[in-house]
Write a structure and sequence with these properties.
InterPro entries: G_ENGB_dom (IPR030393), GTP-bd (IPR006073), GTP-bd_ribosome_bio_YsxC (IPR019987), P-loop_NTPase (IPR027417)
Organism: Gossypium australe
Shape: globular
Oligomer: single chain
Bound molecules: guanosine-5'-diphosphate
Region (Disordered): 39-61
Radius of gyration: 19 Å
Strand content: 5-15%
Number of strands: 7
Distance between the termini: 33 Å
Keywords: GTP-binding, Magnesium, Metal-binding, Nucleotide-binding
Strand order of the largest sheet: 1-3-4-2-5-6-7
GO molecular function: GTP binding; metal ion binding
Mean pLDDT: 77
Length: 304
């Protein structure tokens, strides 16, 4: 709770104080409602219109402005109504009416696919997990499903060029994507990653959101920012999952929450509305249940 308050106050100073100025370069608008629509064509036309009940010209309160620019406000929640208690600890994520059953009872490995078009062909929603090699992707997947070595991907850097589908509770998928940006990977392997994984993002209709893993124990990395901006430009919904948040400050370097703040300040330059973000640790379990709850609300909305 203390950490949450500290993060919220960090947010308040770094994001809220210049309440009125727009982002420096709003090259694209990333908003949940807009991007979720991209991820499915089946969505019914009418969704809860949270603004319908209030007069169009009523000025936005500071609370609502904060909620709209800094927090992730899910469908069904009016930014005017967001309270502190609705925000998941260690995150900017507001819990809304679509949040529901979130625990993982069973998980089964379904298949590895070498091409986007070989992925399982059904309508179940999926979340892709992406990040630099060594970011803690396998550890996070194993922590989420509470099984050791569910993430079967090869640990050899640059070798894992497969899309791995894991079916959870027989109703949704966790998708393990190849890591990117490992120094030892050959240029050829990196090029493969680009076309291969980009093809998946651009063509996968059942993709609800990408969980982009960011190592909070190191300063912001150009390659992560580039990846986030590519996803944003292509309207792919994403949640930043900060990993290794248990790591204490090294003798040099900054604390995880300082690295997270630096990352967010860089991200904010390109987004009018900040994407969802959450702090996690596969060592302490920090953020696990909160992340699963967040996935449940995205999924339940998608499933409608
Ligand atoms: P991947 O290459 O992205 O799959 O990364 P791994 O899951 O194999 O993790 C890379 C390294 O980071 C390993 O040494 C893990 O033990 C370590 N690691 C992963 N997650 C955490 C975490 O939450 N906290 C700490 N302290 N170390 C972690």
């Amino acid at each position: 709770m203390l950490l949450r308050n500290r993060l919220l106050s960090l947010n308040l100073t770094s994001f809220l104080s210049p309440l009125s100025p727009p982002p420096k370069s709003a090259s694209f608008l990333f908003s949940f409602n807009k991007t979720i629509a991209h991820s499915t064509h089946k969505r019914p036309e009418s969704k809860p219109d949270v603004s319908a009940s209030r007069p169009a010209k009523q000025p936005m309160s500071e609370r609502a402005r904060f909620a709209k620019t800094v927090l992730f406000v899910p469908p069904g929640v009016d930014p005017e109504d967001v309270t502190d208690e609705m925000i998941l600890p260690g995150s900017n994520i507001v819990v809304g009416p679509y949040a529901g059953h979130s625990q993982i009872k069973e998980v089964e490995f379904v298949k590895s696919s070498g091409r986007a078009k070989d992925c399982p062909k059904d309508d179940r929603p999926e979340f892709a997990i992406l990040g630099r090699s060594n970011v803690g992707k396998s550890s996070l997947i194993n922590a989420l499903v509470r099984k050791k070595e569910v993430a079967l991907t090869s640990k050899k850097p640059g070798k894992t060029q497969l899309i791995n589908h894991f079916l959870v509770n027989k109703s949704w998928y966790i998708v393990d994507l190849p890591g990117y940006g490992f120094a030892r990977a050959s240029d050829a392997a990196r090029t493969d990653w680009s076309s291969f994984t980009k093809g998946y993002f651009l063509n996968r209709d059942t993709l609800v959101a990408v969980l982009l893993l960011i190592d909070a124990s190191v300063p912001p990395q150009r390659i992560d920012l580039d990846c986030a901006n590519w996803l944003g430009r292509n309207n792919i919904p994403m949640t930043f999952v900060f990993t290794k948040c248990d790591k204490l400050k090294a003798s040099k370097g900054k604390r995880p929450d300082e690295n997270i703040r630096d990352f967010q300040e860089l991200i904010r330059e390109n987004y009018k509305q900040h994407p969802a973000w959450i702090m996690t640790s596969s060592v302490t379990g920090l953020g696990r249940d909160e992340l699963l709850l967040h996935l449940s609300q995205l999924r339940n909305y998608w499933d409608q």
